[in-house]
Write a structure and sequence with these properties.
Blueprint (H helix, E strand, L loop, with lengths): L1 E8 L10 H11 L4 E11 L6 H4 L4 H8 L7 E3 L2 E8 L16 H6 L5 E9 L25 E7 L5 E7 L1 E2 L2 E2 L3 H10 L5 E8 L2 H28 L16 H11 L2 E6 L2 E7 L5 E7 L7 E9 L2 E10 L4 H21 L1 H5 L16
Antiparallel strand pairs: 1-7, 1-10, 2-4, 2-5, 3-4, 5-6, 6-7, 8-9, 11-12, 12-13, 13-14, 14-15
Helix pairs in contact: 1-5, 7-8
Amino acid sequence: MRLIQHYTFNIKTKIPFSEWPEIVHRFLSENHLISHRFLYFFEDILGFDETTDDALPRCGCAKILRDCPSLGEIRWAYNRPDILWLSNIDSQEDFSESDILPLMKKIHRRYGFSESNLYYFDIDFFGKRTYFARDDSAVKIEHQPYGSGITLHRDVCGDNCLKLSVDLLHGGIVMDATPYFETMQKLLPKIKAAASLQIYLSEEEKQQIEEINQAAAPVLETCRGFFKDHLPFTATQNTFSSNYSVAKPLKKLAKKYGYAYKLVWNGVYALEKRTAKGNVIYIDVDSGPSHYDLGVGVSYQGVGFCHKIGCGNQTPASQQETDAFLENVMAVVWEFENTLLPSLDDLYPETPDWFIPADSL
C-alpha cells in the first residue's frame, strides 16, 4: 500500500510557467532533497479543418522535436487522430532535465501545446527514495504517474498548477509531510493550495478487498434495500429557489447523532462517523447554490472500498420541510447503524485513523 499526500498549488497565470522549474530547484535545495527521475508530457490538438499532413509539420510536437530530437517520436491518442503527444512516462530510459530547461520560454509562449506536464519524481522525502509507478496502458498516460514528486501542469484552459506529492507510509509508520508543504508555501506565498490524500493498493491488496466485497455482496444488497424502502425520494421540479438553511439543522443533527460536520463546497455538506472498526459512515447532503432541491447519499467507506448504500431526495419549499426531511434521514441512518451495520462491519478489516473518506457525490 502507498499513502500519498498531495498539495496542489493553483498558480494559474500568476507566475510564468518558464519560472516554475527554478521554484522546484529552490524547494529541493532548501530541503536537501534529490529528484532522481525527470518525466515530460506534451500534447497538441489539431484544428477541425486541418488534415494531419498539413498540420503535423506546424504542430508544437514537431517544433519542439526540431529543437530537441531526443524527446522521441510523436504518438497519437487512442481513438483520437487529432491529438498528438510526446512523453517518456512509459520509457525505461533516463532523460536529462537539462535538455528541456533551455526551451522553457518556448514551451510557455511559442510551441502552442494544449497541455504541458513536467514531473520531478523519485524524490527522497524523509531520506527514503521511492520509485514512481503507473498503469501499463498508454491511455491518458499523463495522469498515470504517482509517487513522491512534483508535477508542473499547464494547459490552454488556464488550469495551471504545481502539485507536491509525498509518500507518507514507511515501515508501517505514517510520516508528516507538513514541513515540506510549508517550505513550498513560502516559495509560493500568494498561491492557494488544496490538500488531498490518496491510497494506492498493491495487486495483492486489491484482490483481498475484491474477495471481501464479493463475500459482502448479499449484506450490501440488504443494506441498499433498507435505504430504498426507508429514505424518501419525492423530488419535484421547483421553478423558484427555495429559502432554507441546510447548515444549521445539519449541525444540530450531527451533534445529536454523534457525527462530524463539514462544508465540502458551496451548497454541499457532509456528516461522518467512525464505526467500531474505524470504517466510515459518510452522509453527503447537496442543496446546490440554488436550493432547488435537496439530495442525500449514504456510503460505507474504508481503505480500498467505498460502497454507496442509500440515497434520497426532496424539494422542500420551507425551512420546516427541510428540517423534517433531514431529521427523517438521520433517523433512518440511526436505525441502520443499530440493525444492519454490525453485520456489514464484521466483514471488513479495521481502517486506520489516518484514513480520510472520499466525498462520494
